[in-house]
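User: Can you help me understand a structure? I only have the sequence.
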Amino acid sequence: MMSNLFSVFDPSTSNFNLSLNWISTFLGLMFIPVSMWLTPSRHSMMWDTLLTKLHNEFKILLGVKSINKGGTFLFVSLFSLILFNNSLGLFPYIFTSTSHLTMTLTLALPLWVSFMVFGWINNTKHMFEHLVPQGTPALLMPFMVCIETVSNLIRPGTLAVRLTANMIAGHLLLTLLGNNGPTIMSSLLSTLILAQILLLILESAVAVIQAYVFAVLTTLYSSEVN
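Assistant: Let's start by predicting it. Here is the structure, written out as C-alpha cells:
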C-alpha cells in the first residue's frame, strides 16, 4: 500500500517520458499568453503588481535603499519558477518536480555555494564575524563557531527538504482521500468531496507560501554575505 501511495511521485521510467517529466518544470511558461508580454491586460497588471511588491520587499531584505529591478531579478524569478511548479503539480497527471530533492537541491545548493564563495573571497572579515554573534561570552565562542558553521552548512539542505516535504505531504493527503473514494459509503461521499476541495484550497495556499519562503530565505542568505 505504501509503495503504491508513494508511486505517485515516481517519474515515468522510459527515457522519452522521463525527459518529458522534467521538461514540465517549464510548463508554466506555456500558460502565459504572448499578448500578456506585449499588451497590458488585467492579468498582466496583477502579475506586474505582485512582482513589484516582491521587488520592494527583497530590496529591503537585501539592505539596499536604491536598487533597480535587475538587482532582485534572480529572487523574483526563483519565486515565479517555484510557484508555477507548485501550482501546476496540483493538476492531475502533471509531474511535480518540486516534490523531488533532485529539483529543490538543484535550486538551493548552487545559490548557497555562490553566496559562500562570494562572501569568503570579498568579505572575509565579515564572514568570520558572523561565526560569533555579538555579545557572546569568551568561554562560549568555540562552541558558537561550531554551531554557526553547522547552521551554515545545513542551509541548502533545509531549504530543499522544507519545500519537498510540504509538497509531498499535501499530495499524499489528496491521494489518500482519492483512493478511499470508491470504497466509501455513498452517504459520506459528499463529505469526502468537500474535504478534498478544502484540502485543495489549502494546498494552493501552501504552493504560494512555500515559493515565497524559499525566495525570502535565499534573499536573506544573500544579504548576510554583503
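Now, to help you interpret it: Confidence is low (pLDDT under 50) at residues 13-17. Residues 63 and 197 are 41 Å apart (CA to CA). Let me know which part you'd like to focus on.
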